[in-house]
Description:
Blueprint: E1 7-10, E2 15-17, E3 21-31, E4 35-38, E5 41-48, E6 52-55, E7 61-64, E8 68-70, E9 75-80, E10 91-94, E11 97-100, E12 103-108, E13 119-121, E14 123-124, E15 127-130, E16 134-136, E17 144-147, H1 151-154, E18 156-161, H2 163-181
Parallel strand pairs: 1-3, 2-4, 3-5, 4-6, 5-7, 5-8, 6-9, 7-10, 8-11, 9-12, 10-14, 11-15, 12-16
Antiparallel strand pairs: 13-18, 17-18
Amino acid sequence: MNLAGNTLNKTGDGTIAINNILAIGGGMLNCNQGTCSGSGQISGDVNNSGGTISPGNSPGVMDVSGDFNQGENGTLSIELAGTTVGEQYDLLSIGGTADLQGTLSLVLLDGFQPSVGDSFDILEFGSLSGGFERIDLPALAGGLSWDLGQLYESGTVTVVPEPTTMGLLVWAFACLAWSRMSPGPGTSPQLRPTM
């Protein structure tokens, strides 16, 4: 489909799936309501003013060659069902600028439970401005949490141990190291001359 410079407005509660090439030609795809999904290529700009952008067809990659703007009422929904990008989890690839507001929602599919160290490259962008106002994260197994430290750098989210778990591990290793260095009962510490 070629918009020839016109704007395609998605309204209503339904879903539009873009699975081929949508040539914008100077126009824009405006997702006002409902869901804009698919594993196609949008050769132009996308504005998510109040709908939901859901890359792929559970899951997949949506490729936007131009700019991507998400307003405060928009949602980017990313599905995770494994650790292989495009096949088991979603990616929104933006060739231009990603101007982010609104909500990022991560959704686990098919009983998938991420493990420590699992990393998901959910966003690619040429440049970035703004940031999500709300991030909805699914619950993880006990002792695990989400690390969003690289979300606005490389578009990556990672599963890490919970801070309390990490603190206990550091404390345990410190105690173990101290017990190995300290002398046992009834022995005197060995003194080494200093230079």
